[in-house]
Amino acid sequence: MTFPPVQDYFDLRxxxxxxxxxxxxxxxxxxxxxxxxxxxxxxxxxxxxARAQPHSPPxxxxxxxxxxxxxxxxxxxxxxxxxxxxxxxxxxxxxxxLLERDAGDALRVILRIAPCQFTDENRQGYxxxxxxxxxxxxxxxxxxxxxxxxxxxxxxxxxxxxxxxQQLGA
Length: 170
Known about the structure:
The protein is α+β, with helices and mostly antiparallel strands. Helices cover 36% and strands 29% of the residues. It has helices at residues 23-27, 29-38, 85-100, 139-169, and strands at 2-3, 45-55, 66-76, 107-118, 123-136. It has a 5-stranded mixed beta sheet with strand order 1-4-5-3-2. Strand 4 and strand 5 (123-136) form a beta hairpin. Helix 2 (29-38) packs parallel to helix 4 (139-169) and helix 3 packs across helix 4 (139-169). The two termini are 31 Å apart.
């Protein structure tokens, strides 16, 4: 990944109205709310990319389950934090702990610390890739579960951001 991404990137911290130019954010309200929150002034994050999509079982398949997923990449708004993997490892560990509580079989979150080239600093650092998927017996149910899971992820990120801000302030 490169930050900022070369294509289809909108700096939602500087221009929150840029969210209107992201097709998935226009189509899926939970993603729109998530992006607005993680790019807000209260957040320590900036989103690098985001997409969401339904996955239906192949026609004629005996599996009736439906799946809905999203992929988001985040970096820290304070660019100095992006070059130490430990900050991302601590964030991922905190998120994992928060998200494992009351986790059901229908929702899955994959957190991945990924290399990232920061073009403004001409330097290699890190980003956090978050893959969220939800299963349901119908497309509507899987999308609803995904939306609820995304809200939960948003809350965990904001909680983690406050803890990080306190830790760095100490």
